[in-house]
Structures are given as C-alpha cells and as structure tokens.
Amino acid sequence: MDGIPAIPHQRNHPEAARRHSAAAPDATTGARPDLTAAPAADTGTGTPAPDATPDPASCRFAVLGPIRAWRGGEALPSGTPQQRALLAALLLRGGRTATAPELIDAIWGEDPPQQALATIRTYASRLRKVLAPGMLVTESGGYAIHTPAHALDLGVARGLAAEAEQARAAGDRILARTLLDRALDLWDGEPLAGVPGPHADTERTRLQEWRLQLLETRLDLDLEVGHHAEAVSELTALTAAHPLRERLRELLMLALYRSGRQAEALAVYADTRRLLADELGVDPRPELAALQQRILRADAELACAEDPAPAAAPALVRPAQLPATVADFTGRATFVNELGEILSGVGGQVMAVSALAGIGGVGKTTLAVHVAHAARPHFPDGQLYVDLQGTEPRPAEPVAVLGSFLRALGTPDTAIPDSAAERAALYRSTLDGRRVLVLLDNARDAAQVRPLLPGTAGCAALVTSRVRMAGLAGAHLVDLDVMSPEEALQLFTRIVGAERVGAERQAALDVVGACGFLPLAIRIAASRLAARRTWTVSVLAAKLADERRRLDELQAGDLAVKATFELGYGQLEPEQQRAFRLLGLADGPDISLAAAAAVLDLPEYDTEDLLEALVDCSLLESAAPGRYRFHDLVRLYARACAERDEQPPSGRDAALDRLLDFYLATASAVYAVERPGDRLPAHLSATHYPGLRFAEPRAALDWLYAEADPLLACVRQASVRSTGRADVLRRAVDLLWAAKDLAESGANSKQYESAAVALRDAAHAAKDPHAEGRARTTLTNVHLVAGRFGEADEEARQAMDLAREAGDPLPSCWAPNDRGIIALYQGRHADGERYLLEAIENFRADGNHIGEASALCNLSRIHVELGRLTSAIDLAEQGIAIYDRMGLTLRLANGRYALGIALTEAGRLGEAQDQLTEALSLFHDNRQPLWEGVTHFRLAVAHLAAHRPTLAAAHAEQAIALRGIGGEWRRATVLTVLGKALRRLGQRDRARVCWRDAEVVFKQLKSAELAEVQALLAAEIAA
To answer: What digits encode the pLDDT tens for the residues 214-235?
Structure first.
C-alpha cells in the first residue's frame, strides 16, 4: 500500500520526504496559543531572540519524530525505548512534575513490571547524567524537566502556529503561510516514533491530528493567496491518505475549481458522497454540499482569492495659501497616507522634511499640493508655497524666496535684511513657536532648498524635485513612480466621462498604456478627447499607437510631454546627454550595467557614474542594483534626441552592434560553461565586443535568466534592422541558438518563439540559407516543446535542406536529431530511427560528442517503442557515459531520463525510479521546469507500474502543475495516467473526468493515444 508522500511545495517530488539535519531545531520566537486545536500537553514559556546563539551547555529536544536530544551541538544518547518513554512523558508535561505512579502508568499502562519504581529511578539517573545540570529535578516524589519552550521542537511549532494566526488576523497571509510551512517542516516522520506506552500512543495521535489541522490551515492560505494550482497535487495525495477527512475534500474541490478543472471538482464531491455512504452511511457535511452547489452555479466569488480591502483616501481639505488642488485627484493612496502620517505627527519633532522625486509629469506637485491640503488642520499657523523653477535656466534664488516668505509671515519690508544668511536666520526665528507647513515645489537641488527649511518644532516642509534629494540630511525621501493601470484608467475616466470610457474600455486601456501610465500624458490625452466630442476613444488610441508620432500627439494647449522632458535633458552635461540618447535606442524592459557599458563603449565604472546621474535627474530609473530602465515615453524622447543630435548617424548602429556582440559573446560563454565540450560556440559568428565570463554554471544561468527579456528584445530588434546587413542577421540567429535554454525552460517560451519567427522571416526575405537554416532549427525546438509536432517537423525538414545548400554543419546535425524526436512522438518509429542514425553520423563527423550523446539517448527512446529493450538500455548508457566523461550535469539529466524510461519498460522499476529521481533533481537544479514536468510524468508511470497509485497520482499532479514539454498533447497523456491512478484509489468519477478531458485533446490533435483513453472510458462505463 502507498505511503503518504510529503509534497509541501511544487518543487519537491513526492517520494522526497522532508530531511532534517542531526542538529536540534532552530530557536524561534514566542510561546503562543494554538492556531488550530493543538494537543493538550504544554511546553512552558520563554522566548529568546530569533537568531540568538544557544548556550553550549543548554539542551534541546525533539518529539515530532524520533525522540532526540542535544547538548550544545552534540547529540545525546536517549537510551532504551522505556527510557525514551520517560523522557517524552516529562518533556510533554511542560515543566510540571510527574509523580512516579503517573510515570509508571504512562510507560507500562496496566501491566507494569514488579520493579517498575526502581526502573523509573534508574532511567531518571541515566538521564540526569547526560542532561544539563539542574534540568532534571526531583520534586514531591516525582520528576520534572525544566526547559524553555524554544528548546523543544513542539514548543517551536506551537509558537510558529500562533504567530501565523496573528499574521493571518492582521491580513498578512503570505507571512502566515511561511510560518506554517516552517512549523510543518519541524515534523520528521511519525511523532514519538518508536516510543512505547499508552501515554505515547495518546500523544502521538494528538500530534498527528494537529499536524493535519495545520496542513489544512496552510492549504487554506494557499488558496487564499491564489496558489490553487500548486495545492492540487498535495491535496490529491492527502485525500488519498485520509479519504474520510471532508475538509481536505472541500479544499481539493475549491483548488480544482479555481484551476479551471470544474468537472474534476464536481467528481471529487461525487466520489466523497459515495465513499461516505458506503463506509459510514452518512451524507457529506453541509459545507461540502454548499460548495458543490456554488460550483454548479459557477459562483463568481468562488473563483477568486480574497483581496484585502483598499485603503480609504483621506478627505480633501481646502487650502489657504497653497495652490488649488485638482478636482480629479486620483489614486496615490499609499503615498497620501505615508506623507499624511508624517505631517500629522510633527508636533513633538524638531522638523519633518519629505522630499518627493520623480520623472517630469509623474505628478509630484499634484500629490504634494493634495497632501498639503489634507494636512492643513495640523498647521493652523499657515502654509507657505513657492515654485523654485528648478528646471528653468535661471532657478529661483533662495534670498528672494526668503524675502517673500518673510512678507507672507507678516514681516515688514523695512525689517527684512539684505543678506541670504540674515534672512534665513530671521525666517527661522519668525517660525519659532508656530506650526507652519512649507511647500517647496520644483527644486533644482539640495543647496537651493536648505536655506528655506524651517528649523523649529511643529513645522514641516514638503519638497518636490526631479533630482533625488539624497544630500538633504534627515529628509524622508519618496520616489514617485507612474500610476497603476487601475489608477490611470480612473483618472482618464474622470476627465473623459464614464459613459464614453465604458463603451470602449479596451481602447481606453490602450490609451493609458500608450501614455506609459504617466499622469501628465494621461491628462493631456484625456483633455484632447474631452474637447473633441466627435472622436471616439478608439480614434485617440489609434493616433497614440504610432510610436514615432506619439510625443507629438501628447500636447494640449500649454501642456506637452515632450517639453517637460526637454527641460530635464537640457540640464545634462554632454556625456550624460550622449548616454541618455544611446541607451534609449535599445529595446527591452531594462538594461544591465554591463550591457549599458557595451552600448556606450565605456568602462563599467564610468558607465555607472553616468547612469546614476541620469537616475538622480529622474530621466532613468534604477530597476534593481545594477539594472536600469526608461519610462516608455522617456525612451521615445531619448530616441528622438538620438535621431536629432547623434552625429554621425552610424553611431546609432554601432551602439546597437556592440550590444548585440555583448549578448552573443556572453550567451556563448554561458553555453560553453553549461555544456563543456559542445561544438556550438565554435560554429557561432565572431564578435568584436567582448562579453562576460563565468567560473561555474549557476552564475552563468543566473545571468541568462536575468537577461532573458532584454536579450530577446535585442534579437527582435536585430531582425528589424538587419535589412542589407547579413552580419547583424547571422549574429542575431546565433544569439538565439546560444540562448536555447530560454525556450526549453518554459519561462520565456513565448518571447523566444516571437524572436525565432521574426528571424526566420527576415532570413527568408534576405535569401540567406545559412541564417534561415539556423533560425528554422531554433523554431523547430520551440514547436517541439509546445507539442506542435507537425509544424516542428516542417521547420526541421526545411532546415535540413537549407543546411545542405549552405554547407552548415549545425542544422545538419540538430535538425535530423529533432526530426527523430518528432517521429517518436508521432509513432513513426522507423523514420525516427533513420533520422537519428543520420544525426549520430553527422555529430561524429563534426566531433560533437555532446550532440552524439543526445542522439543516442533519443535513439534509446525509439528502441523502447520498438520493443528492443536491451539495446535501448545500452544506448542510453552510452549517452550517459559520454555526459559523465565530459562532466555535463544538465545533459546528464536527459540521459538518466532516457535510461529511466527504458528501465521502466523492462520492468526494472526500482532502478528506473532511481534514474528518474536523479534526473528530476538535476532538472530542478538547472531550472528546467518543463523537463521537471515530463520527468514527474515518467515517475508517475513507474509508480503506477509498481502498484503505488498514491505516489503516481501525486507525480501526475506535479506534472500538470509544471506543464512539461509537449504542450496539450503532454497534458492529455498525463491526465490519462492520473485517471488510472485515481481509478485504483477508488476515485472513479474524477478518473472519468480526467479521461474525458484527455479524449477531447487527443481528438483535436488526432493522436494515436485516443484509442487507449476511449478504451478506458468504455471499460469504466461497462463496469
């Protein structure tokens, strides 16, 4: 019979039980009440600091598994089973004394030995010798162990559970879920394992029940935060292990429904109702029945995880001396609350200064004025305002501003001194004892602001600037970003009108998206539309869709987005202006420091200085340490500046060529580190700009996945600008091939496919068989991963023809290898064998041992299907031997995967599971979730053959959650196996739903597997 697999997260495969080190559990915080009904035994109180170093002489204990004890870092002997029973009984008393009769009854029950009391004393004496001095004490004829809660794993678990309950009550579900995971990880198998006696039996049952309650709570939180797809696998295994536990069934129904598997959710209810009737003669509890009805009604509220209620915006207050606030102020609730709290709490402070920085047009002044109005009741003595004209050629002089402030505060002209220092001193003296808010708008820098700050308690200053005021000591700095899409649409609707927007909501979303969610741009676009009653929202969206005209469209009256950006650009030094122009040329959501250095052809340290200066001016954003990005409209402005100012024009192409070279050289280095000995780098185009180098594969993969979006954007951009430039086209194709992990990982498959299609079409238009053959080979891999086998075969066929025409060894090797895999999936085994033998011959001719190993493993799969199992195993082992010899971990995973399939078919199931489990671990370490998915599927097949349906179902669920290579075809094959496992577990209704879903897919794809699933359904109906 199957055991219960531990599957706390999607990344853990079912038979991988939680492993704990021999060290004691970590200390954690708090003695806490139960999150759910906990066992009655207490563990005392007392909480160390979370990361406190334990006393080397102190003892720690574990009862949530085998009884274990440590003193400092040394494991202590726990003695005979009866001695462990004594230790467990005392630990679970939580420091209270247990009398000798109570201990005898706990250990032996109604049949104690004649010398039970003497034996108890012997056990106690032995424990006293190994425990810390004074820990085991004799009191009132009995014994007690005095230890703080954090010294016992049960106490730690209780604390974590209580902390999770508090976090959940406070609305922090993510933290609550994390804390419960930590609590559940403390279990190490059966609690009190191997401890005899009635007391241990009772406590063991209570602890197991409590763990299930914690699991239910954690799974409930999973669903609340939207992790329903990941929860299905764990819930499937748990319901199989605890079939009568209705709460688990309820959670499984909800998880399946939210995963779009309504039929399976209803099938779970049908299975549950039948099981309860057969086993207990009762109906499901009302909550379960109510959930079934809500699923049948497709209750909209049921399909969504809960969201916290939005914070209410503070009431608008009319200004006194401040500029008028806009009537349609929208959003920014977080900033309004944050700044409002600072301004409302200044009474006891020396002074509060908040400095808002951001790109031009982001709404700094609007937000500051709005917040100042709201804070007016806290500053009854007045509010001062000045536009410091920081973006103008001649910004306001502090001495002039101080004069106007002093006059506003009632100082006669005759009393105002001439010098700036004297005016600043008088200004601060005048504010002494008053509660005044000062709004300093559009500041140039910190030096302009400092003389204008109040210096007394009860006053506050709000500063806005395009420059981040890092030099303003003690200031609360706020970096203002663009609006959220919801806020942007709300602002647009308030200006244009709900009726017009409601009729064309998608077009309205396109408009605010084209505006980059920048408030100024949205206001201009909305104002233009509001003034033109004959325009529809779609007309405006179409005008803004043209990137080259967009900035020209975004002007209305004296408002213009381009003019706002021009002010910031005009303040830059020449080198900063050049960096701004050239960086704007590169497509992609962001750019790394190293890539930016390639664009600018400068050392990294000089590049960083320039980029940080642009960040300080709010013309560039720091997306993360070492990464930078433009706002969409700023990028368009930067490109316009490049077309206008970058001379000669060839400098623009040179910058993008350096970026392409950098990505190709670095991606080639990643490929070489991950696949040492592979011949691909030797066949790639030469580069003139160097890339990065990596010492080990993990760092290389980290770079590749971090750079995926900008790298693929560079490829797509190269496909557009490659007209008449074969060198650009070929380097772009080679970059895509070197980055093939991005397609196989599944994380960037759509973007990769888009880039591959663009390159194929560009190469075809250029009549370049060399580039087109390689582009079609990359596209073959994309289609193969997605399960589009017909399209994949056609691309590979053309790639082979083009490779022969161009004399290119790369597609000549890989295209027949891919056609062999496709033929395997399509059941054309003779064709597949012919293609793979051709691939092996070509790989050997090219000296590509890695490719040879790949083709050998693929040929092994063909031999499995042909029933030649001995040769199938031998071929896979040949491939593994090559991978082992060359030290390739990722490719070794593919070899073990192929060997696991062959061993499964040969009936050597234990060996097969070992190979597949090792492959699964390697795929996970190398971040290949699609390959993890197919390996979970193969493990499901192996466990089903070994009559372990619970593990088979759990692996199948993991395969569905991770998807896997093969797209919908693969999903249908997994559903077929999942249905078989569920049928063996007695869940017949859910099994039928799985098979029906598989049947639909196989019919659409006209797959050979249709016959098998229809036979399964027919057999089930006949039964």
So the answer is: 999 998 888 888 888 888 888 8
